[in-house]
Design goal:
The chain is an all-alpha fold and about 210 residues long. It contains 11 helices and 2 strands, in the order αααααααααααββ. It has helices at about 5-10, 15-30, 40-45, 50-55, 60-75, 75-85, 90-100, 115, 125-155, 160-180, 185-195; strands at about 205, 205-209. The chain has a two-stranded antiparallel sheet. A hairpin with a 2-residue loop joins strand 1 and strand 2. The protein starts with a helix and ends with a strand.
Length: about 210
């Protein structure tokens, strides 16, 4: 007869949660939120639907966890580059080059999950689209803040439009993600990055050139 303690603990899981989560990341990354069904997920994760619900909750709860895991493992390079480099331009230059590499890395889905997962999403999943949009806008705001700091220090000209330049950079990164999904190679994305950087004002020792 099962004890009260045994009933409370329940049976141990017959799968590795981290491995299953990684497979869920790949599924949503490849197909997007709307097109990924529960049956797609259970097949990819190697678990039953009851096990998925017990371990992760519903599809939306699983996707929220997937996004956190994706950003931890793959998608945090933009914010890190802007935070770690001494100027906004250096940060964006590094981020664009890393995007060209990350979005085309063999053995992984192409592009960026945060950019592509909400494509063709229905009104019923508007909260998912809004959440991903806010993540993208947060990155743009971070770039704009770094640009404003460089304007204040004299690194960039005083008439630099921080919001427009940051939005332009965000649009380039989103375009690079889509180009990667359409089959562009790393060298092609690097060429796009080089052209995008020409839109940035250049400085020398804090004085505008």
């Amino acid at each position: 007869m099962a004890t009260k303690e045994t009933k409370q603990r329940g049976r141990p899981r017959s799968f590795d949660r981290e491995t299953a989560l990684e497979q869920a990341v790949r599924s949503f990354w490849e197909r997007g939120y709307e097109a990924t069904s529960i049956s797609d997920l259970t097949r990819a994760m190697g678990i039953s639907a009851p096990s998925l619900y017990a371990a992760f909750g519903d599809k939306r709860a699983l996707f929220d966890e997937v996004v956190v895991e994706y950003r931890r493992l793959y998608g945090g390079f933009l914010s890190r580059a802007v935070a770690e480099e001494p100027t906004a331009r250096r940060g964006v230059e590094r981020a664009l080059r890393e995007a060209a590499a990350e979005y085309t890395l063999p053995g992984r889905p192409r592009g960026c999950l945060v950019i592509s997962a909400a494509l063709n999403i229905s009104p019923a999943s508007a909260e998912v689209a809004d959440s991903l949009r806010e993540m993208r806008l947060s990155n743009v705001r971070g770039i704009a803040g770094a640009i404003r700091a460089d304007i204040a220090s004299g690194e960039l000209p005083p008439d630099t439009d921080a919001d427009a330049l940051a939005a332009y950079t965000g649009a380039v990164i989103q375009g690079m993600s889509q180009q990667a999904r359409d089959g562009a190679e790393r060298s092609e994305l690097e060429a796009i990055a080089e052209l995008a950087l020409k839109a940035w004002p250049r400085t020398t020792g804090g004085a505008v050139r």
